[in-house]
């Protein structure tokens, strides 16, 4: 009988990724897992094409491999690879393939939570929604402002991520009038329920009604995807990203969108306004589906810094500074 420690790591990678696939991660996530596993294993093997046995993955070997891996990569990339390998060994321990997880012996960078990137400008969300609803500068062959506003509104008023918008079903927006909620699948298998106020509910109903007119009553069956393209097919990642970018252009607010944020800037705007209006970190955590309270706390700290900057710029304070300096 083969010793588990002699099983090729490449075979175990395939088993790990197959197990992860049952969680329904995106293809991009699975591909990232595979890249992280293969890249570090290549450094362990040192160019040897022979299968690498599990027994070769000692803490000492992995520390050396991760040191070389980190030499020309960002801390975030190293952290992500460490998490992938930690998940891999956690899977092996749970499956009885190995007695322990060597990853706690491998150092990893400590990352500060990324700073929130909300839309800049106090009136930007309102300006964006109004412009898209009016259909300003519509150059598409088949404009669909009701759908575009619904996408923006769910990100701005419910904090949905891109993947959550794509995974949303018609039946996920449910409840009696005045008690409507959107049930969100959530990142990392963390489902959450977000209240839908009457104003947002009206926008979503307006979109569904426009969809009935376009594709018939069957198109809004509860089990169907919520957002579709102009042909009635499920909206895909690239199409949703392009939709949001085009909304920014139509509203003339591209200069107010933080670099690299795009749709996530809408979610960050939702969280930042929650903090500005007095929500605590625990409430923000539940509404946005954060895994860590530290991430939610970041919105409150940013808001506090913005408030201090506003007070610092107050004309009366400037007059006091001039008086003191005089």
The ordered H/E elements are HHHHHHHEEEHHHHHH
List segments where confidence is low: pLDDT < 50 over at least 5 consecutive residues. 307-314
In CATH terms, what is the architecture of the largest domain?
Answer: Orthogonal Bundle
- Which structural class is indicated by helix and strand composition? mainly alpha
Task: Report helical residue fraction.
Answer: 55-70%
Query: Total number of helical segments?
Result: 13
Relative strand content: under 5%
The tally of domains stands at 2
The main pleated sheet reads as: 3 strands, antiparallel
CATH superfamily of the largest domain: Intergrase catalytic core
Q: Which fold name fills CATH's third level, the topology of the largest domain?
A: hpI Integrase, Chain A
Strand order of the biggest β-sheet: 1-2-3
Alpha-carbon distance between the two ends: 88 Å
User: What is the gyration radius calculated from CA atoms?
Assistant: 24 Å
CATH class of the largest domain: Mainly Alpha
**What general form does the structure show?**
elongated
- Mean pLDDT score: 85
Extended strand count: 3
Give a verbal description of the structure.
- This is Integrase.
- Residues 114-312 form the Tyr recombinase domain.
- Residues 100-122 are annotated as: Disordered.
- Residues 7-93 form the Core-binding (CB) domain.
- Keywords: DNA integration, DNA recombination, DNA-binding.
- It is a single chain.
- The chain has 13 helices and three strands.
- It has 326 residues and is mainly α.
- It has a three-stranded antiparallel beta sheet.
- It is elongated, with a radius of gyration of 24 Å.
- The protein folds into two domains: 4-105, Orthogonal Bundle (DNA polymerase, domain 1), CATH 1.10.150.130; 124-260, hpI Integrase, Chain A (Orthogonal Bundle).
- Mean pLDDT is 85; it is low at 307-314.
């Amino acid at each position: 009988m083969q010793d588990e420690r002699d099983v090729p790591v490449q075979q175990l990678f395939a088993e790990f990724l197959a197990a992860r696939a049952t969680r329904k991660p995106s293809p991009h996530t699975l591909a990232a897992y595979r890249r992280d596993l293969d890249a570090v294993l290549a450094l362990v093997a040192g160019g040897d094409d022979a299968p690498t046995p599990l027994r070769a993955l000692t803490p000492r070997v992995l520390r050396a491999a991760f040191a070389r891996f980190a030499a020309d990569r960002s801390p975030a990339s190293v952290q992500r690879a460490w998490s992938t390998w930690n998940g891999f060994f956690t899977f092996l321990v749970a499956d009885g393939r190995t007695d322990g997880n060597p990853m706690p012996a491998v150092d990893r960078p400590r990352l500060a939570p990324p700073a929130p990137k909300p839309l800049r400008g106090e009136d930007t969300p309102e300006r964006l929604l109004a412009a898209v609803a009016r259909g300003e500068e519509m150059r598409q062959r088949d404009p669909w402002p009701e759908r575009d506003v619904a996408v923006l509104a769910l990100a701005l008023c419910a904090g949905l991520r891109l993947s959550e918008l794509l995974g949303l079903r018609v039946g996920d927006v449910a409840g009696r009038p005045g008690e409507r909620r959107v049930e969100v699948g959530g990142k990392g298998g963390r489902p959450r329920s977000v209240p839908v106020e009457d104003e947002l509910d009206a926008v979503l109903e307006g979109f569904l009604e426009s969809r009935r007119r376009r594709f018939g009553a069957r198109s809004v069956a509860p089990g169907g995807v919520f957002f579709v393209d102009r042909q009635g097919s499920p909206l895909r990642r690239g199409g949703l990203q392009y939709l949001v970018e085009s909304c920014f252009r139509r509203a003339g607010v591209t200069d107010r969108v933080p670099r690299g944020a795009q749709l996530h800037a809408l979610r960050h705007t939702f969280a930042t306004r929650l903090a500005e209006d007095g929500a605590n970190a625990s409430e923000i955590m539940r509404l946005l589906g954060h895994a860590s309270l530290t991430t939610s706390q970041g919105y409150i700290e940013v808001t506090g810094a913005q408030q201090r900057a506003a007070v610092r710029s107050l004309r009366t304070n400037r007059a006091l500074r001039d008086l003191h300096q005089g």
